[in-house]
Amino acid sequence: VEKSSELPLDAKSEFVDFQWKLGLAASCDSCRSLKYPYVAVMLKVADHSGQVKTKSFEMTVPQFQNFDRQFKEIAAAIEAM
Amino acid sequence: MCFCILNGSFCWLQPLRRLGGGGVQLSPLGAGLPTLYLHHPGDSHSSQVGFLGAQLPPEVAAMAQLLGDLNRSTFRKLLKFVVSSLQGEDCREAVQCLGVSANLPEEWLGVLLAGMHTLLQQALHLRSTSLKPNTFRDQLQELYLVRDLASIVFGSQRPILYSVAQQPGAWLPHVADFQWWVDVTISTSALAHSLQLSVLMQPKLSDGLAYHRFEAPIAKFQELWYSMALVLKEMADLEKKCECGLQD
Fold it and tell me: Could you say which protein family the record assigns here (chain B) (predicted)?
């Protein structure tokens, strides 16, 4: 159920917005009692021309926890400066 | 001769048979063949819609006219070429040679090939559950084509021919797979504790081109479900009408 996309590493792209959703896939055609939690993210990025592009992806709970840890590390690095 | 109701009026129809003796005579109705209904005379109210449809395709009707006088082995050879061409082979040269050796004029070759091709395509396109061998034979009985065609449509080559017939040609793609999820949105960046239910659907088409995943909130899902029930009901009604014979 994961749709992952590469974030552009183009330095001229600018972060615009971050929207998220915490969801639970209750059931599906192959599994009636799925109960699969996930975090879906919609990232808005503006490229050098100003055009806003949307990137969507999903994370499992462990993936999100890793994601969260990255941000904590970034915050710690900023603090240390 | 038999009466047949055609577009609300009565008219004479030539039955699908060779006329007179010796040599093929095309029906005097010739190129302007009226639409022919595949049923027995005097039986118009109980006929089932055949696999060729309520209206016999003109190329099949034209072919049937020529069959009466066609040599059986020539017919079989032509049929073999049609089957090979359905599988993608180029048989044009071989067909021309056969036409020369069997002394068949080119336009007859064209009529025969077109008719056989259409007939086989129509039959092979149907699943073997919806067209039974006996029904097929009965319907072909009226066209004097029985044994050879039945052995192709229901013989050992059927799986290959069926899969070729399923390939996209003039047909629209069909749904090959359908996945769904019931999704609960617990909270979002815009709204905490939203607890919204929605259905996520992902149909995959037989042409494999694109898969679409879309979301339907519960209200939209109910509408979709209602529409499907309506379509099923219409299909059932139509089936009943066909069983009772089409009235015009």
Answer: Belongs to the COMM domain-containing protein 5 family.
CB-based contact A1:B181 (threshold 8 Å): yes
Does A1 contact B at CB distance below 8 Å? yes
**Interchain CB contact of B187 with A (< 8 Å):** yes
Question: Of the candidates A55, A71, A51, which has an alpha carbon nearest to the alpha carbon of residue A20?
Answer: A55
Distances (CA, A) of B207 to B161, B169, B203, B236: 18, 11, 12, 28
B185 closest CB neighbour out of A1, A23, A29: A23
Cα–Cα distance for residue pair A44/A52, rounded to 1 Å: 6
Specify whether B162 is located in the same domain as B62.
Answer: yes
Q: Which residue has the higher pLDDT, B12 or B102?
A: B102
ipTM: 0.71
Instruction: Flag whether B157 is in a domain.
Output: yes
Q: What is the pLDDT of residues B178-212, one digit of tens each?
A: 899 999 999 999 888 888 899 999 988 877 766 77
The number of folded domains in chain B is: 2
- On whether both B199 and B109 belong to a single domain, the answer is no
Decide if B182 touches A, using CB distance below 8 A: yes
Domain that holds residue A18: 2-79
pLDDT of B216 strictly over 80:
yes
- Assess if residue B26 is contained within a domain: no
Which residues on chain B are in Cβ contact (under 8 Å) with A20? 188-189
pLDDT per position as a tens digit, B43-89:
443 345 567 776 677 888 788 777 767 777 888 888 888 888 888 88
Give how many domains chain A has, as a whole number.
Answer: 1
